[in-house]
Amino acid sequence: MYGRCVSGLLTLMLLLVSALAQTVVPRQMAKTSREPEVEHPRVAEPVTHYPRFPVSSPDSSGFASFADSAGTIFSGTVTRIERRPGHAGQTVATLDITFHVENAVRGATAGRDLTISQWVGLWSMGQRYRIGERVMLFLYPASKLGLTSWVGGALGRFAIDTSGRVQLSPQQVSRFRKDPVIGGRTRVRVSDFALAVRRASEEE
User: Fold this and answer.
1) Which CATH code, of 1.20.1630, 1.10.1740, 1.10.10, 2.40.50, is assigned to 63-203?
2) Within its chain, how far is the Cα of 140 from the centroid?
3) Strand, coil or helix: what is 106?
4) What is the tens place of the pLDDT at every residue in 118-176?
5) For residue 53, which of 123, 112, 5, 133 has the smallest C-alpha distance?
6) Which residues contact 82 (CB under 8 A, 6 or more apart)?
7) Which residues 6+ apart lie within 8 Å of 130 measured at CB?
8) Domain ranges for the chain
9) Contact 73/157 with Cβ under 8 angstroms?
């Protein structure tokens, strides 16, 4: 009698353990079978490629090398700014800027109008003009598309004040400090500036 009771209890315990195993194990498997959360990399925004134009400073630190990089050097007043969309044979939108030339050093004629073309994207990069302003410009030779830009970026554009003097920014003062005519000066007469350019061109 005693043996039967023990045997019955063991059988009951085995049945209970088996039932528990069937309920607990699937839950654990469900927990461990989940796919790990993966942080997906951000998709980079598409990059738009624009025409490349020389906008950096010439390698040499001398004013002669800087001036020699320019195809056109002059001072004048902005008289017109006109936007031109891309068309057949010209795939990029451009800006035409017209100046009345006052002092011509290279590639321009004093007393006449001169129109240059630049990629419209340069406007948003800071190469801007306004009607009536007077400037002294160093411009790269025109590209195959007929476009140009300032030599050395902002280094190639000089403002002219109401008294007719060329104004140099701190960056320009530092860049041309070794020139015997304009070195260290923040304001230079246009005639003296033109003399410095001609002298530098002769030394090159």
Assistant:
1) 2.40.50
2) 18
3) strand
4) 999 898 888 899 999 999 999 999 998 889 999 999 999 999 999 989 999 999 998 88
5) 123
6) 95, 96, 97, 98
7) 78, 81
8) 63-203
9) no
